[in-house]
User: Fold these one by one.
Assistant:
Number 1:
Amino acid sequence: MIGSFIVLFAIFTFLGFYGSRWRRGDMGQLNEWALAGRRLGATLAFFLVGADLYTAYTFVAVPSGVYAAGALYAFAIPYVAITFGVALAFAPRLWKISKEKGYITGSDFVKDRFESRTLSILLAIVGIVALLPYIALQIVGMQTVLASMLVGIANNTVVEEVALIIAFIILAAFTFTSGLRGATLTAVFKDILIWLTVIVVIAAALSEIGGFSHVFTPSLSAKYFALSSPQLPAYMSLVLGSAMALYLYPHAVNGILSAESAHKLRLSTSFLSIYGIGLGLLALFGVLVYAVPGALAMVKSFGSGLYVVPALILNTLPPWLAGVALLGIFVGGLVPAAIMAIAQANLLTRNIVKEFRPNMTPQGETRLAKWASAAFKFIALAFVFVISSTYAIQLQLLGGILILQLFPSLFIGLYTRWFKKEALIVGLLGGIFSGVYLVLLANHFGKLITSVYPTAVGSIYIAILSLGINLLLTIVLSAVIPRRAKAEEVPVPPTKVSTQ
């Protein structure tokens, strides 16, 4: 098992470094390093964005949520169906404007659209902060793989930490040299392994237990069959909020802007809904585990539902194939971590540092982005080592709430200039502070365990409530703040003509 894992990881590493030689470009230009020269066709954009959005954390969190809470966590399936509709309204339009203006980030667009450096900087800060726990959670997913593989090995915790550090050194090295090109090639490799894993494990598990009739039995808790009435508002708001938020994340924007054309981006986005099928199958793992005694015992021994998928893999597949499947999940954390760190580096360089050092050369800009990308990876790694994985998972709830506050400026702003920049700034801050406060209130200022808040109509995802506050402030203030006349529109007083 460990042998096949290492061999495939070596192939993954080769592809990452080979990216610097694939479709050569001037890697001293940020456009080439961070966006692969905007030359990814429909197929490559499909794999890149798919790898970008379907991560190691997805592969362990969705089955874990279903295992623990039942049908409520199946919200991930309809949300995927909706989010690509949002993407088709958002991505091609942003791509066209960004291609024409040379934008690298969503904050670049917002700065020009609303003529506000302050708003651009705020969006960049929110994006960077929201992605830190997101990268950390990829590492949590990778940790579950290593912990599952290393059971019974002496000092397995030390071996696990050393393995993670080595993996991240390799990731930082090939991202530094290859940028998004390396991430794209490894994304194709990762997605092939993931699809293989999902299909083979489902088939093997069902073959072992004799079909779904032995899974959905009367002894299974009712929570796996249907939602209770009080859960419906939470379920629907989680679907809506998650669908609206996904493509606002900086790494999603990064994937969008790397496409070769708006048509190819639209085509690749249309086919991304195929991943929804895979996600639906993954969700079933949270129920399948109850029908495989060895896997269920393993999950209980670890004391965490995060081990549902590794446990099923290890208890249904032969060792060599289990190594292949576990490697798929492991690199399913490394690939998005690379893209997320690139997106963070772009925001830091373009929309924060460059605002205060406007004379930075293109080469200096790219050099800073490369080093920042490496730094963000290791900050996230340290984040996981310092705090418990449970707390890291709960911080991601805040990440989703924060990122949805970009919706008025980054999404609605594509279609209208009516919003005032001052109103957008106040709305953004109002949405962020209200979201954080409601999360603390919902959790009674203690451990973060929920992201929904009780209302008169039921519990609602806090991201939706805080976005409502954001939009209310933005719309009201945009209506009352007088619009400033542009310089060329200022009326010139008539020249006084002498009568003498």
Number 2:
Amino acid sequence: MSSPAEAGLRPPRSVAAAVDRVRQADSVWWLVLVAAAFTVAQLALVVPRLGLSWDETVYISQVSSHAPASFFDPARARGIPLLVAPVTLITSSVLALRIYLAVASGAALFLALLCWRPLRPAWQLALAGVMFGGLWTTLYYGPQAMPDLWVAFSSLAAVGLFLQAASPATGSKSAPAEASSPAAKPVRWRALTAMAICVAIAALVRPGDALYLAAALGIAVIAVRQWRRWQLLAAVVVGFAAGAADWVIEAYVRFGSALNRLHEAGAEQGGFGFHFAIWDELRSVNGPTLCRPCTVGLRYPELSLWWLALPVLVVLGGYAAYRAGRLASSVLAAACGLSLAFQYLFLINYAAPRFLLPAYALAAIPVADAIGGLLTGIQRDLRGPAALLVAVVLGVQLLIQATVLEHQVAEKVSFFGDYKRIASDLRSLGIRPPCLVKGVQDIPVAFYAGCASAPGFAVGQKVTEPVAVLVAPGQPPPAYARGWTLHELPGIQSQLLKVNAYVAPRGQAGR
């Protein structure tokens, strides 16, 4: 029998035992802890400082009691306005909205991971949650009224529920039965219904992304013999159709047809066609938040190595899943992630880090498989050092992401704050609701000022309310505003938002 002193000389064995205890403690509280940490990180690092972006003001204005609705672009969908409506219909407080979304996104991360619990150990899902939730992009957009992260959550949940519906006997976390015949395993209707709802949510938030998700799941039903069940395919189709119905109906009401809306949306985005945008996405992985046109250099290339390593880790995760009897679920997660990323990597000519959030969420599953395989597939004596190595690498990655997040938030605090400062300058000039703001950056400035931005204005039209036109310094005003009073706005800090205001004399016709 070993003495305590002798036992103390073998730390690897004690670490290995701790690793084994973590693996055996298969509790849902792992997921609760990760989701709570995700929310707390948002509240600490993002929420208190960040104002509203251009895109957010478009979504929020549709359901706001603070300002008239701004023009709703043909490419947008109504899911995000529905998400924020419980707050924006009550208050115009940005802080209240941020807190609400931070809590909601934490709950969504928990639920998305929970949909995978019959398919993976809880500790492994928690690891996937840490890797996805720890990305600066995920933390940055968690408390924002933007669609990409909500597509990520709904897609991650949909794939997990699809697998549950297709393989109802996968309750064993150690060796799910993914290869049994379809006849032996009837579809689990509760999971099937929940999966259809998740696909519908993705389509309600962003129909274009949901189409790629639905296509990947539909192809999986056809291609994999064990999944060839009409109920699975019907649930995918019905879910997508239900979620996209609002977008289609609005297309006929506002644009004449769905094809017309697609055409206008494509024209607004610069057209769709083959474009090798992988390099663009790599250049924007650490910012800027919108790379259009993407002519910037690669920021902090040494901090982008994880992005290049991601495909390798996904492949290693597939191998580890194969050894654990979970290959089909790992491959489906990776395939759906690649499908969701396809249009952003190959079909548009600009980039934004948020575009790949759904792909990152799904890739986290096979990456967690790879790490799980490393920690469980080696000799017990080596598990301690392996766990320590994983902890160090993951800690460094989280620190890197936090550093990039801090830089991005600091960069945007001043930029978004200028919208509020311009609105304040306009109020001092008498531009108060009901009012109209047109010109450069008109949508966010109008929202902050409580003004409209969507109505047009023509030469000879009589001014019946306070109107201001924002014009870049050195540029001439529109023809209708040539006789209006020019004002320089002193509160602007960012050179990118420097504008002058032409204010209309009340009761005078534009000339």
Number 3:
Amino acid sequence: MPTTDAAAPPSPFWLASEHCDLQDFIATVSLCTALADYPHASAVEENILVYDCDRVRALAGNPVALRALQAEWGQALMDGPGVIVLQRAVADMDTLEQVSGVFRALIAEQHASGQAAGDHFAKAGANDRIWNVQQKLCLRAPEAFARYYANPVFAWIAEAWLGPAYQMTAQVNVVNPGGVAQAPHRDYHLGFQSAASCAAYPAPVHQMSALLTLQGAVAHCDMPLASGPTLYLPGSQRYRAGFLAWQQRPFRDYFARHCVQLPLSKGDAVFFNPALFHAAGHNRSPDIRRMANLLQVSSPFGRAMEALDRKAMSAALYPTLQALRAQGALNDAGVRHAVAACAEGYAFPSNLDRDQPIGGMAPPTQQQIMHAALAQDWPAARFLDALDSHAWRQQA
């Protein structure tokens, strides 16, 4: 017979903030990256693996050697330092400069329009951000786009972490002189959730989150240490409760004392596990506008099999839920479950030029809008307007 006792489930399956132990974290990140364990790497600096992409590109004609390199990269991202530097990842510097010119033109147009792009980690207008630059570059300069992304290094590292059919997106971030450092964090998906939201997901989802995305940054200018290249804590991606821990002060303080950073040259790239604790550094230079193309590469598996018009479903269901709740035929929990089966519960993908993450890490979801409407008993017409506005904000 199943028990009805309110016993807590085994702690390894559900993670909570109280499971975050600084000493366990310190033991996890106390690693020494050995060059001998990574035969294709050219150096280890600050526990970070460094690869010479002139040597890497030479493997293109040797499928066995290339496969071994990709396995090495995947192991480094999973169980090693969690971050690798690819020196001279971009060999075609003329194309890099052409793409940089498109980026600068897009930023100038944003300034001229009076728009200040919202940012996950900085005040709007403090730095320069171009959302969905992947589409914007492709539409504005398709030949430059083709030459830039024909780069085999980008494809090889994406396949090493995600396999084929990966989905490439990108956002440009320019940290201007004086731009302050970010707080340490983890990245998309669970890295964009609050601690309470993260705790609602079982531990296997915490592990899975890091396997769904690869983070990268391509240097579009020289980045000496004074310009504030990204700070990393090698090995921190291995800490199981890290999506909760990064939001706690003791872990942030430890990061501040022990993080490392490496200077980058124009054309270098960095790729890292999204679960790695990291943060953009403080740009203390007087005149370097530190420009990076932030590559966010996604697994193709984060999609449902069928395409549903959840906007139409939500519009049809809303007045029925209002009526059932008013009749006492559905309690609050029942309403929540019905909304979850109908409306979109995730904020992404979205058009972040319109649907900016101001005041939080993510824009409101269709479900959140529906719950707010039900809680405040909006007329159906107002809810439909809200759905239309939400759909417009998410359109490319």
Number 4:
Amino acid sequence: MIDDQNITKKERRELRRQEKRTEKTGRESAGWRKQSLRRMVLYSCVLLGVGGAIFGTVKLASNNDSDGGNSSASSVFSVSESDWTKGNKEAAATLIEYSDFQCPACGAYYPLVKQLSQEFGDKVLFVYRHFPLDQHKNAELASYAAEAAGKQDKFWEMHDLIFEGQKEWSDSEDARAFFAKYAASLNLVAEQFQKDIDSAEVKAKVEKDYQSGLNAKVNSTPTFFLNGKKLQNPRSYEEFKKILEAAVQ
């Protein structure tokens, strides 16, 4: 026969052991949860910190790019003393042309721009900048010839002769001879003209124009900027005229 009192004591001892195990397990579980929570909080903080650092870096880079772009654009579209200009430097409208003397499209626009400059007079400032393309073997030399003539105050006269004679010198193996002929017709000092064509100063000027074109995102010729805004090349003289008329009103 089994003693009920003994059973009760055993049950109580077993219950106490179970309670202690439960408490221990509960404490371990609570500790594990606390550690897990701390790890999660720490991990979240790390992610937020890294994310914030990345965002700050990206934002800083973006701001730097933006500032640099604005500064560069401002510099590109500011007319300097070294630019070749026609018209009034105080005019309400400034038309900057990036051009290649050997480019057929530039040759086609040449008479339009010349007529516009005559018609608008002091209402528009016309600016010519060199952008000789690599595929045009004589374009760079033509730019040097125009600059060399400019050293004797005949830039625009040489500019016109080079464009008007584009077909005769473009594919020539001796384009320099044609430019010398143009120089003679303008009564330039031949020796000085030839010296200036090869001068570092003239080459640096052409390169300066070219680099400013790259900064302005020029990728074809001719490219026109009216008051700093790139134009879609007008399809006719009348269309070009209307664009300028709107700018000077």
